[in-house]
Amino acid sequence: MVEIRKPIPVKEAVQLVMDHVEPLQTEIIPLEKAYGRVLAEPIIAKHDVPPFDRSPYDGFAIRSEDSTGASGDNRIAFKVIGEIGAGYVAERGIKKHESYRIMTGALIPENADAVVMLEQTKEDGEGFTIRKPFLKNENISFRGEDAQQGEVLIEAGSLIHPGTIALLATFGYAEVNVSKQPIAGILSTGTELLRVDEELVPGKIRNSNGPMITAQLARMGIAHRSYGMLIDDLDACTEVVEKALKETDLLITTGGVSVGDYDYLPAIYERLGAKVLFNKVAMRPGSVTTVAVLGNKLLFGLSGNPSACFTGFELFTRPAILRMMKNNAPYMPRMRAKLGEDFTKPNPFTRFVRAIWEMTPEGIVATPAGFNKSNAVSSIARGNCIIVLPSGTRGYTKGTDIDVLLLGSEQGVSEWTL
Ligand code: AMP
Ligand code: MG
Questions:
Q1: Nearest CA to ligand 1 atom 14
Q2: Parallel, antiparallel or unpaired: strands 401-406 and 334-339
């Protein structure tokens, strides 16, 4: 008898997965290795930035009061008493009508309170003249204007991107406290599967899901352990799943979660005593996506259909992995766009359509990326986003305002809003 499964809304499914995530420990790693990791503690300014008043330009450091009354008819002359390159400190302060030639980034000498840009001067004898008065603090880059000592600049849970690296380096973090990364296991199931390097024979197809998921993990900087491919055999699959669960922090399987005669994942979950969080989601593709939990480990049973597999990973596995690392923005960013062509099929479930977004004179337009059934592989290759079409009895017409989920974005958002 075919089991009747009750579909749950996508939002509920995402929440269930996230509620069962066990966060990983933290570790201290060198700054050079920190790109792509998640901060385990906030970045608090260890000192003011910049740490001293400095010149934002190449020019001359002057006392602004000496420039009072300067005009085209009344050029005021300054004597240059020396030069301050970036990294150097002036020998002494300046006196009336004196100046230093100063370079970008150099410390402002004592008594100076303005910088005259090179282009605003005319050379003259032992110095230069200017034709306009300067205000106190004009062209000074102030100590602490960027960040003040003690300020919380970046929250714990933030992804470390190149800008974060710059900030960490600024404060001398040679080592950084980050969350550990999980190791994901990948197992592709299906008697019909061939390796990538094998010739096609009747009835068989090459395993595209395994390499695809490897790449989806790689895009997140997450390491994996591959358990290859297995034929649909309950005992063999159970054995490998058990082994994989011992060696990894989460397991991603593809195939075998439907209600066909050879779909053994449900039986494997039962044998292992894993708690199934859901086995039917009100979405297309991937309604059979199943997530189970055993101890503190999540088992993602993704559909074998490539589009469904891809979407299941992006919707459920990716945010769960990010949450394991306590990333505070684990969800794909969303934007509004106009639908690029009619989508006539009615949707009993929320539909996720692989699509291409582009900027046009009419605004952002997202167009389905071709053949779009759950078994499609070509549209995943073409797509750069996923259109979300809420369930409904009618199709959607070209030009309708729709939501689009962005793929491959380094930084996500903190809430699942669909
Ligand atoms: P299943 O989820 O096992 O019912 O498989 C659904 C469909 O996806 C079937 O047509 C399978 O042949 C296909 N499929 C299963 N696994 C893979 C895979 N690793 N790569 C490509 N297609 C697959
Ligand atoms: Mg199968």
A1: 304
A2: antiparallel
Q: In testing the pocket of ligand 1, which one of 201, 216, 252, 254 has its CB within 8 Å of the most ligand atoms?
A: 254
What pTM did the predictor assign?
Answer: 0.94
State the distance from the centre of ligand 1 to the C-alpha of 393, rounded, in angstroms.
Answer: 29
Centroid of ligand 1 to alpha carbon of 192 (angstroms)? 8
List C-alpha distances in Å: 48 to 52, 137, 141, 170: 8, 18, 12, 10
Alpha carbons 314 and 24: distance in angstroms, whole number:
20
Phi and psi dihedrals of 180, rounded to 5? Answer: -65, 160
CA of 274 to the centre of ligand 1 (A): 23
pLDDT tens for the chain, 418 residues: list them.
567 899 999 999 999 999 999 999 999 999 999 999 999 999 999 999 999 999 999 999 999 999 999 999 999 999 999 999 999 999 999 999 999 999 999 999 999 999 999 999 999 989 999 999 999 999 999 999 999 999 999 999 999 999 999 999 999 999 999 999 999 999 999 999 999 999 999 999 999 999 999 999 999 999 999 999 999 999 999 999 999 999 999 999 999 999 999 999 999 999 999 999 999 999 999 999 999 999 999 999 999 999 999 999 999 999 999 999 999 999 999 999 999 999 998 889 999 999 999 999 999 999 999 988 889 999 999 999 999 999 987 899 999 999 999 999 988 999 998 8
Nearest CA to ligand 1 atom 16: 304
**3-state SS class at 147:** strand
List of domains in the chain: 10-24+181-324 (3.40.980.10), 29-49+152-179 (3.90.105.10), 59-130 (2.170.190.11), 334-406 (2.40.340.10)
